[in-house]
Structure formats: C-alpha cells, structure tokens
Q: What sequence folds into this?
C-alpha cells in the first residue's frame, strides 16, 4: 500500500487510515519537519493505527469513507487512559494532520477530530531553584562519568534551551573566540545567537581541551565501538537521576524543567516578551504566555520600578 500511495501520489476515499498516514510521509509538509519530529510522527502514526476501536478492529484498517466521530472518540478515550492527557492530545493532533491532508486530496469530506472536546492537560510548573542548579552541577562535574551530563544541563539552563538541542550540540555551533553560540533549534528551526559567559564559558573551554577533537560538545564520555556519540535521550534521563540521587535532590525536578526555569527567570528579571523570544526562539508572543507566571520576585521587581 505504501508503494502504491507513493507512486500514484493520490489518496482515495476507499483507502484506509493507515494508508493515509503512509501517504502523508511523502508530502512536502512532512519532508520539512526535523528528523526528531519525523520520528515522533512515525511512532505515533503506528500507535494510532494499532488502536482497537470497534469489535477489536484496528483504527488503521478503517477506510476514510467509513470513518465516523464515534471511532475517533473511542480511540481518544483509549489514549487518555493508556498514555495520559498530553500524549493523547498529541496523538489526536497527528491524526488530525493526516485527515486534513486527506481532505485536501478530496478523499475525506470532514475531519471528526475537530469535534473532540479534548481534555486540558495541566501545565507543568516545576522549576529549579538556584541552589538546586548549583548543587546538581557541582555533583555532576565532580565525576568524569557525569561530566557531559552536567554540561548539557548547564547549557540548557544558562541559555534557556531544550535538552535535546544541547544533547546534540556540535562544536561547529560554538565560537569560543567570540563567545557566541549560533543554534538552529530542532523543533521549529528557529535561529538564535546567544552569548557565552561566566562559568559556562570556562567549562566549555575545558571541555574543548578534552573533547574538541570530535564533533559533539557534550558526547558520551566513553566511546561506542571506538566512536564518540551524542547521548541517546534515554541515557540522559537515567544519568540525570543518578546525579540527583547522589546530590540528594528531589526527583520531581527534571532536566526538561530547566528551559522553563531559565525563561521564567527572564520574566522575573523584567525582560519584555520580545526580548525573551530572542532567547527562546519562539516566533509567536502567545507561545511565551505559559512562562508569564506570577512570582514574588517578579512582583517585587515590578513594584520597585513604580514611580513614587
């Protein structure tokens, strides 16, 4: 079915949801996605198609012309119970993209996903304290095994960037002489130019002395089959937990919370929305809104600037 969809470059109402997913991966829109996003989509397309919705029938085997709102609601409810609200909503979004593609190719009249009343996921608000960051970095940098893990989190915090982008960061993005990071973010291909300062600059200089011979800024400290590589994302989680346990830090703080922590500190410092976007890479001011939280330090800073 995949070969047929690719060869004919068209979709019919008699085709299945699975075929529609396969068809989508040959569209220009899919090809513009980052490698990471493509992997996420592919993984979720498979899970969507494997979902059992009616009389033990797989969702992926339903023909486009037979797709009904009840099929989508059953699938969505199953996702909510099995993978949680956030992932269920992401899967619904992936499905909606495929169905909208089918509509544009006149293989489907309407998109039933748009009728779902999605459960709202509670926004995660966990942030690191300054003391927790210092404790983590001191612990990570104290052992060779954790050195690159410490640097990955150090960069994510100082630059308010995503862990994934720091995990795969290359020396070609780092200009130590001029103290500038030039990064194309993986999520939406946003370009950011950030200063390299203070303790992070010193740490990067040391890292370059030891690992400047290969491409990654913070590779796994032991080579794999003679080759240095970026840490797999699953290893990051495991090693971060090791460092937290050794440092006696709470388990609820995660590596991904560091970007939120860094951006929120910009808010507290009085940086305006467009200034924050220069750092975060967001292209829409609305995307910054989740970080505009009310904090005591932020309120104190604001009130201190009030004219007397």
A:
């Amino acid at each position: 079915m995949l070969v047929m969809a690719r060869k004919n470059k068209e979709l019919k109402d008699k085709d299945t949801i699975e075929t529609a997913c396969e068809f989508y991966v040959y569209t220009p829109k899919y090809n513009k996605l980052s490698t990471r996003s493509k992997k996420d989509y592919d993984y979720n397309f498979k899970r969507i198609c494997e979902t059992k919705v009616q009389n033990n029938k797989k969702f992926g085997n339903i023909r486009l012309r037979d797709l009904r709102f009840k099929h989508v609601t059953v699938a969505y409810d199953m996702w909510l119970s099995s993978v949680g609200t956030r992932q269920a909503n992401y899967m619904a979004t992936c499905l909606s993209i495929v169905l909208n593609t089918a509509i544009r190719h006149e293989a489907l009249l309407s998109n039933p996903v748009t009728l779902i009343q999605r459960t709202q996921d509670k926004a995660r608000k966990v942030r690191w304290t300054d003391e927790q960051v210092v404790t983590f970095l001191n612990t990570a940098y104290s052992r060779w095994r954790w050195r690159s893990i410490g640097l990955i989190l150090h960069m994510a915090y100082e630059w308010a960037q995503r862990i994934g982008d720091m995990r795969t960061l290359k020396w070609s993005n780092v200009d130590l002489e001029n103290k500038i990071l030039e990064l194309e973010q993986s999520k939406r291909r946003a370009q950011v130019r950030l200063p390299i300062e203070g303790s992070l600059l010193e740490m990067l200089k040391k890292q370059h002395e030891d690992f400047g011979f290969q491409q990654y800024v913070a590779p796994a400290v032991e080579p794999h089959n003679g080759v240095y590589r970026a840490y797999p994302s699953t290893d990051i989680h495991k090693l971060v937990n090791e460092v937290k346990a050794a440092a006696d830090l709470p388990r609820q703080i995660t590596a991904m919370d560091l970007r939120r922590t860094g951006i929120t500190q910009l808010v507290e410092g009085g940086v305006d929305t467009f200034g924050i976007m220069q750092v975060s890479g967001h292209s829409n001011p609305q995307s910054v809104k989740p970080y505009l939280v009310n904090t005591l330090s932020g309120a104190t800073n604001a009130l201190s600037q009030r004219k007397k």
